[in-house]
Design goal:
178 residues, alpha+beta, Peroxidase, domain 1, Glutaredoxin, 2 domains, four-stranded mixed β-sheet, 4 strands, 62% helix, elongated
């Protein structure tokens, strides 16, 4: 994963800078997300990985699939990825692009996994606390996982806060084994 991130970073940064300077952040987000999903399709993935096709043929195939999501600059970006044999990094490029965009917009996506249903007032209270602590607008998505027994797990980029009973029991078991 680290190697793929290293490969994808300069492309994501260049795409982000271009999109920001040209005022097309939304368009580039949509194109990269759609391209990442398209490339992940097994049929298209096999075609793009086919060594019998030239990089021009591979690029034109992907450009054709993306269709109206592309203007000249985004088409050239896809062609550049193909020429440099980086099409497989599209999903990571899209992920990094969204991180750059979130930094610019001072937003943070938080995944909250709870053992039980959480009401909107609790989600709003948590978002307010995180906004104060981190200085960013917070978008929380909540999922329920009864296997946590109780509590919640919060994930935001590389920050993980495990306040679940399952996590505390695992930590206790680890400490008892020493």
């Amino acid at each position: 994963m680290a190697e793929l991130t290293t490969v994808a970073r300069p492309y994501a940064k260049a795409a982000f800078q271009f999109a920001h300077e040209s005022g097309q952040l939304n368009e580039w987000s949509a194109m990269l997300a759609f391209a990442a999903v398209a490339i992940a399709d097994p049929a298209l993935e096999r075609v793009v990985a086919n060594p019998a096709l030239s990089h021009q043929q591979q690029a034109e195939l992907v450009v054709g699939v993306l269709g109206d999501k592309l203007d000249a600059a985004r088409s050239n970006f896809i062609r550049l990825l193909s020429r440099n044999k980086r099409m497989s990094a599209l999903a990571e490029i899209a992920r990094l692009y969204e991180l750059y965009r979130a930094d610019l917009e001072k937003t943070l996506d938080v995944d909250m996994v709870s053992a039980f249903e959480v009401g909107q007032p609790q989600v709003d209270s948590l978002a307010s606390s995180l906004r104060t602590r981190l200085g960013k607008a917070i978008n929380i998505s909540v999922t329920v996982d009864p296997s946590l027994i109780g509590g919640v797990i919060l994930r935001a980029r590389d920050l993980v806060i495990d306040g679940s009973v399952k996590g505390k029991l695992a930590k206790l078991a680890e400490n008892l084994n020493y």
